[in-house]
């Protein structure tokens, strides 16, 4: 690991100032991805600003939403009473991620900021536009079994690895950030970016901006929600495809729906058109199959991830059936 | 790499509270300059504009940390990049905690920090300042093994034994967390500990016995 300076501020402002002023400084919270990347020489910050002493761990009700502090641990959020009651989809997604040990370390803010697990991003001997802009994408012609089928560019076909993010995208969450120019809110679905020509820029955070919390608004989906994660082994693996499905059902009719996928794009992939295809329809496998077809419009696979074109719609149907109580 | 031998991540125990010897400081400065060049040419070049030596020397300062490990207080002075795992093994000779992958993928390095299981390879020791750490060495009560250690022996919960300290630390946490109510739940909540010998069925049996025995873990 490269050498770095280490500072541990106790106030948000001090942390923000330090990272704003120093071009090579970065925040560290749980460290479960950052230290991994530093050990491999993928990233080499000169200064780490440890934010664990900042007062950002609370989970509370706040103006119609559940407000989750950026430093709340993934494992704590997954077992929090308020979260389980109001947003079981989020708890399920968190439980599907990583291992018990990692969930005890990883924070909500850090989960959002984690980097892709594309093997070419991690392999410093090979070209990667995300790691070294302009060098090329090794995955497009390489081993791309884990890669995107939506929203990719000719510069990058990596996927976002988060499970939590898929649930937050489905649940209309908002990210609260604090920065050198003050506070602002970013809709979760706009927090991450598609790769375009700048795959190295993954979020819409500005330099020095600190995630302070996530708001998950009140909804009627708690009774019919399911997070389905399909992976190479039963636990402790990244998603090949995952689906966050949430339904508001009345008299066997779908009043409202939320749908998002993981493992298919550079960011958690919200499926608004498929949601529209569900609303007003009866709860049935036929309805779900039609929505899945809508969801898959525009999907395109590479040499080794053709299977996702079939796995993804089938997973959507399965997740919706489970959410609706049909499975 | 020979250089790494000459320049360990942490200084010897005896030097903890003494001001660094002048010659050693000079050596450290020189070594850190070498490291900066070897690892981060971009960084080193930039640093040259900013009074190179001072900047690199500052980056190499040690950070004071107090940790309670297995009930014993340690006042340490550490290079920030020392992981908790390397502190335990290389500095404090607590080699029961194993380094498997060193990337948070295998669970061999599992310890408890303030009662919660974590991967000690993916956290910096300086980030744990003021915390209480329990390793496999701190689990037994003197010569009396912890019930989980007994159960692993009884059920053949290992072959080569390399993952075992991590498995046992994780197993104890699994019960304390209330995630050991069925075989399925145990497997899910033990999935962060990989066993290449494939002792999984016996590990599940060991955990079930301790859980069903109702002993305090």
CATH class of the largest domain in chain B: Mainly Alpha
Shape of chain A: globular
Describe the sheet with the most strands of chain B.
Answer: 5 strands, mixed
Number-wise, the strands of chain A total 12
Distance between the termini of chain A: 48 Å
Stretches with pLDDT under 50, minimum 5 residues of chain A: none
What is the averaged pLDDT score of chain A?
Answer: 98
The CATH class assignment of the domain at 225-324 in chain A is Alpha Beta
Organism (chain A): Rufibacter roseus
Protein name (chain A): FAD binding domain-containing protein
Domain FAD-binding PCMH-type (chain A): 1-221
Keywords (chain A): FAD, Flavoprotein
Please characterize this protein's 3D structure.
- Chain A: It comes from Rufibacter roseus.
- Chain A: Pfam families: CO_deh_flav_C (PF03450), FAD_binding_5 (PF00941).
- Chain A: Keywords: FAD, Flavoprotein.
- Chain A: InterPro entries: CO_DH_flav_C, CO_DH_flav_C_dom_sf, Diverse_Substr_Oxidored, FAD-bd_PCMH, FAD-bd_PCMH-like_sf, FAD-bd_PCMH_sub1, FAD-bd_PCMH_sub2, Mopterin_DH_FAD-bd.
- Chain A: This is FAD binding domain-containing protein.
- The complex is a heterodimer of chains A (327) and B (217).
- By secondary structure, chain A is of the alpha+beta class.
- Among the domains of chain A are: 5-52, Uridine Diphospho-n-acetylenolpyruvylglucosamine Reductase, domain 2, CATH 3.30.43; 225-324, Enolase-like, domain 1 (2-Layer Sandwich).
- In chain A, 29% of the residues lie in helices and 21% in strands.
- In chain A, the strands form three sheets. Chain A has a five-stranded antiparallel sheet with strand order 4-5-8-6-7.
- In chain A, strand 4 and strand 5 form a beta hairpin.
- In chain A, helix 12 (285-295) packs across helix 13 (308-324).
- The radius of gyration of chain A is 19 Å and the shape is globular.
- The mean pLDDT of chain A is 98.
- By secondary structure, chain B is an alpha+beta fold.
- Chain B folds into three domains: 2-59, no CATH class; 63-100 and 117-135, Beta-grasp domain (Ubiquitin-like (UB roll), Roll), CATH 3.10.20.30; 147-213, [2Fe-2S]-binding domain (DNA polymerase, domain 1), CATH 1.10.150.
- Chain B contains nine helices and five strands.
- In chain B, strands 2-1-5-3-4 form a five-stranded mixed sheet, covered by helices on one side.
- Classes of the chains: A alpha+beta (327), B alpha+beta (217).
């Amino acid at each position: 690991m490269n050498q770095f300076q280490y500072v541990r501020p106790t106030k948000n402002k001090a942390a923000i100032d330090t990272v704003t002023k120093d071009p090579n400084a970065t925040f560290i919270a749980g460290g479960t991805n950052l230290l991994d990347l530093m050990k491999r020489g993928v990233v080499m910050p000169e200064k780490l600003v440890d934010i664990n002493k900042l007062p950002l761990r609370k989970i509370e009700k706040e103006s119609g939403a559940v407000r989750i502090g950026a430093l709340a641990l993934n494992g704590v959020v997954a077992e929090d009473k308020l979260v389980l009651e109001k947003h079981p989809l989020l708890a399920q997604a968190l439980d599907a991620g990583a291992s018990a040990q990692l969930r005890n370390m990883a924070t909500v803010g850090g989960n959002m900021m984690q980097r892709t697990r594309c093997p070419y991003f991690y392999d410093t001997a090979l070209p990667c536009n995300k790691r070294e802009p302009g060098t090329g994408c090794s995955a497009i012609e390489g081993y791309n079994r884990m890669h995107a089928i939506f929203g990719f560019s000719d510069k990058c076909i990596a996927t976002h690895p988060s499970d939590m993010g898929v649930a937050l995208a489905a649940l209309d969450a908002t990210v609260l950030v604090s920065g050198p120019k003050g506070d602002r809110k970013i809709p979760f679905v706009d927090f991450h970016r598609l790769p375009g020509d700048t795959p190295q820029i993954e979020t819409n955070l500005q330099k020095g901006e600190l995630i302070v919390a996530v708001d998950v608004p009140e909804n009627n989906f708690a009774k019919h929600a399911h997070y389905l994660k399909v992976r190479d082994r039963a636990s402790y693996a990244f998603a090949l495809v995952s689906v966050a499905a949430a339904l508001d059902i009345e008299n066997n009719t779908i009043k409202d729906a939320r749908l998002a996928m993981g493992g298919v794009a550079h960011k958690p992939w919200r499926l608004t058109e498929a949601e529209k295809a569900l609303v007003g329809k009866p709860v049935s496998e036929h309805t779900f199959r039609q929505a899945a077809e809508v969801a898959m419009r525009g999907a395109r696979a590479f040499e080794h991830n053709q299977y996702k074109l079939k796995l993804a719609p089938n997973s959507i149907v399965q997740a919706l059936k489970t959410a609706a109580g049909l499975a | 790499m020979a250089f790494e031998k000459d320049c360990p991540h942490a200084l010897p125990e005896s030097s903890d509270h003494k001001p660094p010897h002048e010659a050693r400081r000079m050596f450290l400065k020189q070594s850190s300059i070498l490291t900066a060049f070897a690892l981060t040419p971009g960084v080193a070049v930039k640093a040259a504009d900013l009074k190179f030596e001072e900047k690199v020397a500052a980056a190499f300062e040690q950070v004071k940390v107090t940790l309670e490990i297995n009930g014993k207080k340690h006042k340490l002075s550490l290079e920030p990049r020392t992981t908790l795992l390397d502190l335990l093994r290389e500095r404090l000779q607590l080699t029961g905690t194993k380094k498997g992958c060193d990337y948070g993928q295998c669970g061999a390095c599992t310890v408890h920090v303030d009662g919660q299981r974590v991967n000690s390879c993916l956290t910096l020791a300086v980030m744990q300042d003021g915390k209480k750490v329990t390793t496999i060495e701190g689990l037994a009560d003197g010569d009396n093994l912890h019930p989980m250690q007994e159960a692993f022996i009884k059920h053949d919960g290992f072959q080569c034994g390399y993952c075992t300290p991590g498995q046992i630390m994780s197993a104890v946490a699994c019960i304390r967390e209330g995630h050991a109510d069925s075989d399925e739940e145990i497997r899910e909540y033990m999935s962060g500990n990989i066993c290449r010998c494939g002792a999984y069925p016996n590990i599940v049996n060991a955990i079930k016995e301790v859980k069903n025995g109702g002993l305090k873990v």
